[in-house]
Amino acid sequence: MGSCVQCQCSGHSSTCDPDTSICQNCQDNTEGDRCERCAPGFYGVVRGFHDDCKPCACPLTNPENNFSPTCVTEGFDDYRCTACPEGYEGQYCERCATGYHGDPRMPGGRCEECKCSLWGALPGPCDPVTGQCRCRVGASGKSCDQCMDRHVCGPAGIISCDDECSGLLISDMDRLYRIITEVTLTTPLPPPYRVLYRFENMTEELKHMLSPQRAPERLLQLADSNLGSLVVEMDQLHSRATKVSADGEQVEDDADRIHKRAEDLEQFIRDTLLGAQDLQLKAADLNQTLSRKDGTPDRSLKDMKDEIQAMLAEMRKRQLGGKKSIAEEEMDLAEELYQKVKRLFGDPHQATEDLKAEIKEKLSDHEGKLQEAQDLLHSAQEKTRQAGSLADQNQANLTALERKRSAVNGVKKEAQEDLEEMDRELGPLHNQLDDKIFVFSLSILAEARNLSFNATAAFKAYSNIKANVDAAEKEAKAAKQRASEALALALDPEVPVKEAAQGALQKSNRLLNQAKQLQNDVKENADGVAGLKGRVKAARDKTKDLLKAVNGTMATLNAIPNDTAAKLAATKTVAADANATAIDVLERLGDLNLRINGLQRNYSDLEDTVNAANQMIQDPEKNIHAAGAKVKDLEDEADRLLEKLQPIKKLQDNLRRNISQIKELINQARKQANSIKVSVSSGGDCLRSYRPDIRKGRYNTIILHVKTTTPDNLLFYLGSAKYVDFLALEMRKGKVNFLWDVGSGVGRVEYPHHTIHDGNWHRIEASRNGLNGTISVYPLEGSMAGMMPTPASANSPTDYTILDVDQNAYLFVGGILGTVKKADAVRTTTFTGCMGETFLDGKPIGLWNYRERQGDCKGCVVSPQRSDGEGTVQLDGEGYAAVGRPTRWNPNVSTVTFKFRTFSSESLLMYLATEDMKDFMSLELSEGKVKVNFDLGSGVGSAISANRHNDGQWKSITMSRNKKQATVNIVDIDSGAEEKIVATSQGSAAGLNLKENQKIYFGGLPTIGNYSMTARSEVTLKRYAGCLREIEVSRTPFNLLSSSDYTGVTKGCNVENLYTVSFSKPGYMELSGLSLAVGTEISLSFSTLADTGTILLAVGGASPISQQARNTNILNSKRKRRQSGEPYVSVMLNKGSLEVLVFTGSHSPRRVIRRPEQGLLNDGREHSLRIERLPGRSFAVQVDEEAKREAALPNDQPVSLQRVFLGGIPADVEQTSNRANIPFQGCIWNLIVNAVLFRFPPGPFSFLEC
Prior knowledge:
Elements: E1 15-16, E2 23-24, E3 30-31, E4 37-38, E5 42-43, E6 54-55, E7 71-74, E8 78-81, E9 88-89, E10 95-96, E11 100-101, E12 112-113, E13 139-140, E14 146-147, E15 151-154, E16 157-160, H1 166-182, H2 193-209, H3 216-289, H4 301-317, H5 324-372, H6 378-491, H7 497-558, H8 563-618, H9 620-674, E17 679-683, E18 687-690, E19 699-707, E20 713-719, E21 726-732, E22 735-741, E23 746-750, E24 762-769, E25 772-779, E26 792-795, E27 810-813, E28 832-840, E29 843-844, E30 852-854, E31 857-860, E32 873-884, E33 893-902, E34 906-913, E35 919-926, E36 929-936, E37 940-948, E38 955-962, E39 965-972, E40 978-984, E41 999-1002, E42 1025-1033, E43 1036-1038, E44 1045-1051, E45 1060-1063, E46 1069-1071, E47 1074-1076, E48 1081-1088, E49 1093-1099, H10 1104-1109, H11 1114-1124, E50 1128-1134, E51 1137-1143, E52 1150-1154, E53 1167-1174, E54 1178-1183, E55 1189-1192, E56 1199-1201, E57 1203-1206, H12 1211-1217, E58 1226-1233, E59 1236-1237
Antiparallel strand pairs: 1-2, 3-4, 5-6, 7-8, 9-10, 11-12, 13-14, 15-16, 17-28, 17-31, 18-27, 18-30, 19-24, 19-28, 20-21, 20-27, 21-22, 22-23, 24-25, 25-26, 28-29, 32-41, 32-42, 32-44, 33-38, 33-42, 34-35, 34-41, 35-36, 36-37, 38-39, 39-40, 42-43, 45-58, 46-57, 47-56, 48-53, 48-58, 49-50, 49-57, ...
Helix pairs in contact: 3-6, 3-7, 4-6, 5-6, 5-8, 6-7, 6-8, 11-12
C-alpha cells in the first residue's frame, strides 16, 4: 500500500496529477512540472510568493509596445528581453537597430525599416527618429526617391544636366519660354499656323521617340522588378518547403513519443502481470499453510479467540523454566567481571610491592656514591633531596591504593548479593515474558490469515482485468506498428515531402482516436480496481476488530508488575560506579609507574654525571688542551668549507634566477598559445587532451563554437583524476546535452528547441551553479542566426555541490582517449566536425596547445568572430608591447593618445625613459584613477584624476606636453563626459631627450633582462589587463601586433564581466542590496592565508546617497542606529574560526561558528561557503561539503539588507554599525544570491591576482 504526499508545486498550485505528480493549473504566471519557472513573458526567481514572476516590459508593458514575448532574469532584480524582433535592440528592445527608425518607448511607437532609395540615398542608416535618408546630390524626398530639376535619375545613378552643353540648351529653352510667356497675342497679326503645325508634328514625333516606356532605363527597371518578384516567389517557396519539412519532423517526434508511451504501457502491463503472479503464489502458500479450501475461514473469530484463551490458560499451568539458563549465564558474566577486577587490582599491587623493594635496593647502592661526591658536586645533593620527596609521595600513593582496594572488595560483595537476589526474582519474570511472546505469536497468526483472505480476493480481481490488460497490450502493439509506418512514410525519399507529411498527419489523427479508445478501456479497468479497493477496505475493518480483541488480552498482560526491571537498573548503576572507580585506580597506577620510571632515569643520569666528574678531576689540564685543539681544528674545517661553498652559492643564485626566467617564458608561451584563435577539424579520429586551468567550486561555465553534420558527438569532457566528478557536453540525435556529477549523482539537461548538425556554426554556453545546470545554443549562421535562445535547466541529486577537480584532471575537447575511463552516463566518445574557440570558466583553451594527441587532426575555417577595429588589441595582464621612438620626435613638445578599456585598478599603461632614467614619462592606473608622472631631468611632475576610469567602458586619453607642463584629457566615449588634469615638472629642464634606439612600452615592462628592476621608483610594475586601440605617439600611429617585441597581446577585445576580486591591501567592495527571506540562499568562494578578516557584511542601513547626507552628524547617527536595531549579516574569519552572525533587528544576534580544529580555512586553498534561510525560523551554514550547521532565528520575517560589502567595510559603516573593520587579504569569487551571479564593479582592488 502506498502513501499520499503533498503536491510539490513551489507554492503556486494546489493540484497535481495523482499518478505523475505533475502540477496542474500553475498560478501567478508560472509553469513547469513543478511550477518552478516563470512563464514566457515574465521574469524572476520562483521562491513561493505570489509576486515571484513579474511581467516583462520590452520596453513597455502595454501590448502595442511589448515587442518580446520572453525575457530572462539578469542580475538580482533585473531582466533582459530575449526575443526582440528584427529591427529592435537593447536590453529591453528599447531602441531601433541600425537601418530602422522610430521610438519604441513612446506609446504606440514602433521601429520601421529605412526604405532609402538605392540610387538616390547615400550608404548608411537613416535618421533613427525621423527616418530621413541622406540624399545624394540631385535627389530629394524622405526616401531620396525624387529627382531634382536638371537631373536624370535611375539605377545607373544621378546625372546632372547642368553642364556646358545640355545646361546651355536648357537655359536657352527656359529663356525662350519666359519670352513667349511674356508676349501678348492679342494683336491683329495672323498666327503662323503652318509653322506651328510643323512644330507640333516634330514635337509629337520626338515625344514618341523619347517615351519613358521605350527608354533603356525603363526596360532595366521592368527587368529588375520581374527579377525581384521571382526572388520573392522563390523565398515563399523556400519558406513553404521549410514549413513542410518542420511539419514532417514534428510528425516524426509525435510518432516517437507515442511509440515510447506504448513501450511504457507494455512494460507496465508486464509488471502488473508479474505482480499478479507473485501475489497468486503467495496466496497459494498461505492457503496451503492455513488449510484453506474455498477461501473462507474454517472458524469464526470468536472460536479462534476461545481457542487462544484455552491455550493461554494451559501455558500458565505449566512451569516454563527455559529462561533459567539466561540467568545462569548472567551470573557467569558477573563472576567473570569479578575475576577481571581481581586481575586488574590484585596483580598490579604485587608488582608495585616488588618494584618498591627493587627501588629500595637501588637507593642503598647509590647512597655510598652520593656520600663520596657530596664535596665535589652540590647539585648531586639537590637531586638526592628530590629523589627523597618522590619516594615519600610514592609511599602516600601506595597507602591510598590500599584504601581503594578495600573499597573495591566491599563493592564486590555487594554486587554478589545483588546477583543472588536477581537470580531469585528472574524466574517469575521469565514466565511472564513467555506468556507475552505467545500472545504476540497468536495475534500475528490471525493477521496472516486475514491477509491470506485479502490476497485471494486481490488475485481474483487481477484475474478479472487480465483480459482487459491483454486487450490494451494488443492495442499498444498496433499503435507501435502504426507509428513505425508513419515514421517510414515521413522519411520515404521517393514520395514528395508535402504529400508524405499530409498522409502522416491523417494517420496520426487516426492513431490519436485509437489512443483515446485505449484510454476509455483503461477507465473501464479502473472500475475493477475500485472494486478491489472496496474489498481491501472491508478486510481492513475485520483486521481492526481482531486488533481490538488482541488489545484486551494485552491489557491483561500489561498488569504484570515491573519492579524487577527497576532493581536490575539499580544493579547496573552500582556496577557502573564500580567500573568507574576501577578506571580511576588504573589511571593513578599509570601515573605512579611513570614517576617511578622518571626516578630511575634521574638516578642513571646522576651516576653518569658522577663518573664524568671523576674523570675530569683526574686530568683537567689535559682535557682543556684537547678541547682547545678540537676547537681550532673545527675553525679551520669551517673556513675550508666556506671557501668551497662560495662558488656553489653563486651557482645556486644563478640557477634560481635562470629557473625563474624559464618559468616566466613558459608561462608567457602557454598564454600566447591559449590566445591563438584557430579551429580544429576532426574526422572522428582526432583526439586531444589539454591541461585545465580550473579550481574546485560551486560555479562553472563552458563556451564552445561547433560546426558539424554528425548527430552524435562528444564535444567536451572534464573528469577528476581521483573522484567521480565530471562535466561533459555531448550531442545525441543532433541535440546538445549537458551532463555533470559533483559526487551525489548525474545531472543532465538537454537543449530541446533545435538540432545543430546542419553544417552551420553554433555557440554553446553551459553553466553549473551548485546542483543546477543550464544550457543555451546560439546559431551563428543560417536562417536562425541572431536568434536569442531560451535557456534549459535541470538539477542533479542533492547532497554535494562542489566540483572537486584541479589541474591534474582529464580535459578533452572533441572526443576522448580510449585509455581514459569516462562516466557511464556519457554515451559518445568521438567527434566529427570543426571545433572553434573554447572557454572554461571564462579562460580560453588553446586548441593547438594540447598535452597529448592521437589521430589525424587538421585545421578548418575559423569560427565567426565579433568584428573589432583594425589595431584593437587585448593584453592579458601578464604581457607587454614595445615600439620604437617615432622619427618625428621633438624633445620640447610630445603627445601620446590612445583609447583603453579595462577593469584593472593598478596597472601601467605607457612608459618611456632615457637610458640613464633621468628623463621619463608614464601613464598608469592607481586605484582605478589615471595618473601621469614625468621628469625632464630636474624634478618630477605628477597629477592624478579625481574619478575612476576602470569601469569596463572605452575611454580616450590624450596627454600633451609642452616643455614643463603636461595636460591629460580623459573622455568617456559613450557618455561624452570629460576630465582634465594638469601636471608641471620641477626645475628648469624643459626637454625629454629620448634617443632613436630607445623604446616606448605599453601595458607593462619586461622582467627578463631585469628591466623592471631598474625602472623609476614612481612607476608601478603591475601589468595591464584590458584593451588598447588607436595608439599614436607624436602623431605617429602604432599597431602593437606589428611590433617585434610583445607578449600576452592578442587581436580584438573581449572584456567580460568580472566575478573575482583580490584584496592585497585594505579595501572593500560595495554591491547592491538584497532581501534575506525564507528560501534565500547566499554562496561564495574564498581563499586566504590570513586567519582574521571580514569576508562579507550586509547591513540594513541607508543607501550610499542618503548615507552621505548624514555623514555630518556621525555621532547622532551612531546613537540612532543602536536604538533602531538595524539588521545585518556578518561573515568573517576570527583567529581561524569562521563566524556567521545574523541579526533580524529584534532579540539578540544568532551565531554559527566553525572551529579551526575541523580543518583550516586560511590554508590558501579554495573554500566554499553557503548560507541558507530555512522555514521554521532558522538558518543554515555549510562550509565546503561538510554537514550543515543550523541556528534558530526569532521569526520568519524577511530582512531587508540595503548595503553589501566584501573584504572590509567603509569608515561610516564601521562607526554606525558598531562593528570593527578587519580587512580581508585574499580572493573572493562567484558571489551568488538565489542562483543569480553578482557582477563586481570596479574599485581600489585587483581582479587579476587570484
